[in-house]
Amino acid sequence: MSGQHTLPDLPYSYDALEPFISRQIMELHHKKHHQTYVNSLNAAEQAYAKTSTPKERIALQAALKFNGGGHINHSLFWKNLAPSSSEGKGNGGVLRDGPLKDAIVQSFGSFENFKKEFNTTTAAIQGSGWGWAGLNVTTKRVEIVTTANQDPLLSHVPIIGVDIWEHAFYLQYLNVKVDYLNAIWNVINFEEAEKRFLEAVNGSKL
Ligand SMILES: [Fe+2]
């Protein structure tokens, strides 16, 4: 289907995040799930352009929110991951000394405590959703927040987002969400996270 939005390429190969996220998950997640959000967003926008009444436009709001959020969130998620340093493949999992680490330590006491609090909060999501480390633009502090379904993060500037839909982990981790959450820190791209953090504290818009 043609449309304004297109599926972005992954910045690494499908097997690059192994053993923490399997090739099978990455292929399905990117080629099938994300592609479907892109296709459905384009369809909803095309339908919206043809509407002539408020009622017709209101009827499309849910599809725009769900598929638009799915496209935004997954586009962010792929860039938020990187091949693991512990596997000798890349920089994933390494939080260098710098402004993001300083902000995390300021808010959570330590990097380890940050990950622990993130996992506890995120594991408690009921149903599908996303876990986030986001910048509170008022306090300039990093906070842990969650969103339901495919709702994008609007209350904070997203620094790190983790997909908590079962399609993100079930084929590898089955029902053990906490194992997925523990594993994913090995492939978080903290360089990308720090870039977002610096853009956010320097006053970028939400
Ligand atoms: Fe997903």
Structure description:
With 206 residues, the protein is mainly α. Helices cover 48% and strands 11% of the residues. It contains 8 helices and 3 strands; from the N terminus they run H-H-H-H-H-E-E-E-H-H-H. It has a 3-stranded antiparallel β-sheet with strand order 2-1-3. A hairpin with a 4-residue loop joins strand 1 and strand 2. Fe (ii) ion (FE2) binds next to helix 1.
Alpha-beta content class: mainly alpha
| Tally of structural domains | 2
Number of strands: 3
Distance between the termini: 30 Å
Mean pLDDT: 96
CATH-assigned fold name of the largest domain: minor pseudopilin epsh fold
The CATH architecture of the largest domain is 3-Layer(bab) Sandwich
User: What proportion strand?
Assistant: 5-15%
* Biggest sheet character: 3 strands, antiparallel
Task: Give the % helix.
Answer: 40-55%
Shape: globular
Computed Rg: 17 Å
Strand order of the largest sheet: 2-1-3
- CATH-assigned homologous superfamily of the largest domain: Iron/manganese superoxide dismutase, C-terminal domain
Order of helices and strands: HHHHHEEEHHH
Total count of helical runs of at least 4 residues? 8
Can you identify the CATH class of the largest domain?
Alpha Beta
Pfam families: Sod_Fe_C, Sod_Fe_N
Function: Destroys radicals which are normally produced within the cells and which are toxic to biological systems.
Cofactor: Mn(2+)
Organism: Phanerochaete carnosa (strain HHB-10118-sp) (White-rot fungus)
